[in-house]
Design a protein that fits this description.
This protein folds into 2 domains: 178 residues, D-Maltodextrin-Binding Protein, domain 2; 143 residues, D-Maltodextrin-Binding Protein, domain 2 (3-Layer(aba) Sandwich). The chain starts with 13 loop residues before the first helix and ends with a helix. Strands 1, 2, 3, 4, 5, 6, 7, 8, 9, 10 and 11 form an 11-stranded mixed sheet that branches. By secondary structure, the chain is an alpha/beta fold. The protein is globular and about 65 Å long. It contains 16 helices and 11 strands.
Amino acid sequence: MAKKIKPTSDQLSRRDFIMRGGAVVGGLALAPSILSNTGAFAARARGENVGGKLSVLNWPLYIDEKAEEQFKKATGINLKYSEALNDNNEFFAKYQEPLSKGSNVGFDIAMPTSWMANRLLKLGYLQKLPLTDAPNVANLSPGFQSPAWDPSGEYTLPWQTGMTGLAYNIKVTGRELTSANDLFDPKFKGKVGMLSEMRDTVGLTLLGDGVDPATVTYKQARPSMRKLQKAADNGQIRRFTGNDYQDDLVSGDFAVCVGWSGDVAQLVLENEDLRFVIPDEGGMRFADVMVWVKGSKAKAQVAAWLDYFYTIDNAAQLEAFIQYISPVAGIQPALAALDPVAAKSELIFPPESVEARLKTFKILNAKEEEQFDNAFAKITGS
């Protein structure tokens, strides 16, 4: 998951960017029908004031500040909202010990990426979400109702989803890019960036080599790992980055890099030569998901949070601000009322033709995770 970029006051709005059509994207198509549209979250519909306290840990710039205040007013809940989740592994290292003891970790809901949520689930650090007290979760897009990271669908609920593909500077590349193997084009030697997120970089490389990341074994991945190692050793790869790939892409130090779909919408505000594309071989899909951590007693407050943000209108408002890919089905008409241009954007509702090309990285067992992580650490020099 990328740390969001906060636009400065003199930058164009994302709506302006969409109108200018500065990106080529591909991705998910949401279900066309609304599964449940109560119009108001359950507690409000019953005239209840939930009250109590709720603490939420999320990624930076991943919610509309107005939505925070509206949630407080609608529920009477004293909300403590933190944007201190910056890295999945750092999160795990920091909270593993208290979570293993069922201790109070200072938050009730966290929003790790799906693979990390799966790890937390396997370790017994999560509670089942109070879904029966949150009827609006019926609006969850069918594609996420039994995900690989949470087959029962009882422990996680997506907050937002997104795509990993190629981000590039056409002024530097001199041409449009269409293949994951463009990352290894000798013409771009020394101007290629790869993400330090293993599942993104390895996943895209696997797709370029004709290997499905959703089913890959470590043995099958070894040729792609060697390919990455060679590219790191011979200088094809300039460096491995976190979210800071943005600066190199804008400046032209990167001709092309592995990047996240949502970033391009803001990066293009600084440079109209930037592009994002899902390669012909496919791209990676990620989801940041809400989990209820062990030790939290805030059941009613957690239910109110889930229910509130899975209401069609509230999900649409959230989407108007974040503009990744919403996991809530049927928001397009409500989003159109807020922003007609955004409701037609392929950044938010990419064409169905690309949905089949998006892959979620396989859920690794402990041995596989160690193998992949060790090999990737060697490649990145970390």
